Amino acid sequence: MGVQSMASRVVLRGRDHELAALERVLATARAGDSAVLVLRGEAGIGKTALLDHAVGQAVGFRTLGISGIECEMELPFASLHQLCAPLLGRLHGLPDPQRDALSVAFGLQKGEVPNRFLVGLAVLGLLAGAAGDGPLACLVDDAQWLDEESLQALAFVARRLAAESVALIFALRDCDDGRELAGLPELIVEGLSDHEARALLASAVRVPLDPLVRDRIVAETHGNPMALLQLPHTLAPAELAGGFWLPGRRPLASRIESALHQQFASLPVDSRSLVLTAAAEPTGDVDLLRRAAALQGIPEDAAMSAEAAGLVEFGTRVRFHHPLVRSAVYRGAAAPGRRAAHRALAEATDPHLDPDRRAWHRAHATDRPDEGIAMDLERSAGRAQGRGGIAAAASFLQQATELTSDAARRAGRALAAAQAHIDAGAVDQAQSLLAIAEAGPLDDLQRARLERLRARLVFSQVRGSAAPRLLLDAAHRLAPLDSDLARDTLLETLGAASFAGRLGEGPGLREVAEAARAGPPSRTPPRMVDVLLDSVTGRILDGYVAGVAALRHAMHVVRQEQKTGVREAERRWLWLAFRVAPEPLAPELWDDDAWHEMAQGAVGLARHAGALNVLPMALTYQACSHVHAGEFDTAEALIDEATAISEAVGGVPMMYTSLLLAAWRGQASAALDLIGATIEEVRARGEGRVLGLAEYATALLYNGLGRYDAALAAATRAC
């Protein structure tokens, strides 16, 4: 594919294979069935031009399109709202639970955290309903920059479209794993052949081109069309003709952005201000842009030069000709200009209709601490959390921390932001915020909270032998200051001690249970945390027979909380119901139905909250229930998802169910290799519980193979 210039007609070169694939998708939708395609490729490779071509070929289709915006990834459901906005007139036709879930997700009404399954069903219903009037084409560009909630919902829809006339086409960079879209039909968009690349380059160069320079450009761009078209504009004619130039050290995308920014810099002053303001406004709301432009004194005719340069179109929505144009304009602009754009956008945004985006713009409009903005960001964090966006809440809280001048208040906000980042699986950000908190004046309770968060961070990263001691020390420090938080920490310590198992260097389960029994009493009436802590403590200290009734009561409480809707403060404890006893709670009571239900509920809650630090654990235990049901493929898919999430957030994948699955499948060589590698790995970090499970998996494998002596030896080691 090639683009002759950003201002002229798009001409596709060397893309016969890709064009045929797009035509098949559209033809399938025309015939009354759904079709999905994921285009993957590096920045500038031509995915956007292919999507534009699909729009041009979708004659008779209603088309909906969105493009992910990197700076908007913090706002839950923002991209989904943009895609569905033209269809919201159909909301009344959805079942009440779906309509309410989608309305809360889009901020149209207040309510409980929306169930993402219901949100996905609602979007599916909207698209299917629209397709009833004629074929529908939905095109999603830069899917790697969609907010997580929107991407999950669209992936859900993509897997469930059936006999609807819907064509759903995604485009994303191949440097991003796009795990939510894994398994969908995909097409890798690669660079042009040397022949096509030379032809495209020749069409873009209007001066004599030295053959050596030409071949060097073609080789170094690897056939990337945007690079081929834009790099010549960064070189003087003498450089092109004589070969007197050196390639820069920046990544390809940065060189492309540099060329695009040079085009932007050549615009008149007012046009530059207008385009920069558009780049700072992710939604493409042309009315908002006009109001912000008027506040800056930008005349209406400023749009003409920008459109003539081929950088952006101002229609019913603001549309940049390529996502890299937006990033090139914004990143290349001076900081005062960016702040002025955000300041105008904040002033132009209705504080009642969209307070979160207004707070976001205000935060980016200032270069100094501002308590008023920080307070707005805290309120936005609360709303984001209520809509299921822990990562968004963490980002708002971090911005609030950065804009706080009072040292004590800054330290307190840093603690809150660190906790949100830990829950969201953002380890690096959490560590930086804890360092900020530690530098500030902290009272005794805040110091104890800091100690607890550091211990939680250690556990979330490695689940090793060091975490139990750190958590127990934090619990002791919290006991006289905050009894509820101390009991929370004791429950966490039981989980950490269970993971450390026989490799634990600090307190074991019995020592932690004794500390819990001697520690602060439960409140009246007890919280779910209290019920869990007391029941597991009794099981450990008093034995199974004496403790089974309390365990059954605890399991009943957890199941009821999952069904009726748990309070925000206690939601994170639902997953821990699996891991606070010598065995997971439901299997300990030989209740397979409860195991399946609790695992499914924990996964759902973690997904809805975006709690990436606990979602892999919940997925692993859900997978384990499927292994025991003989549903190996389902279990494998859940394991793969858990592993991908753990690696993405810098954690250690959980190998529990992987070992069991390999053993149950009877894959002797693969299972033994996996078991051996896992034992070596967990010994190094001190996750001793896996040792017993690895030996159990070995016994299971050998028993199935008829090697009973080896099975008995492994079972003995497991115990």
TrEMBL record:
User: Which Pfam families does the record associate with it?
Assistant: AAA_16
Instruction: Decide whether keyword ATP-binding is in the record.
Output: yes
Start and end of every Orc1-like AAA ATPase domain? Answer: 12-169
| Family matches, as InterPro entries | AAA_16, P-loop_NTPase, TPR-like_helical_dom_sf
**Which keywords, in A-to-Z order, does the entry hold?**
ATP-binding, Nucleotide-binding
Question: Which named protein is this?
Answer: LuxR family transcriptional regulator
Per the UniProt record, the source organism is: Streptomyces lannensis
